[in-house]
Amino acid sequence: MAKVLITGGAGYIGSVMSNFFLLNGYDVLVADLLWFKKDAPSIYQDNPRYTFVKGDICNADFRDNLLK
Which pTM value belongs to this model? Predict the structure, then answer.
């Protein structure tokens, strides 16, 4: 199964990209710091191929864990 990481994925463009990749059979991992929103996007939370993690990709430990 193909996988994609979308950084800043809680915003409008990230949501559109998540939808595109989910519809095309990808596993989607979204990472976002949620600066502009207080909650993780819930539109795809019931999709088993969608995962959201809150964090800052500028943090090396966080980023390295995402890429494992």
Answer: 0.87
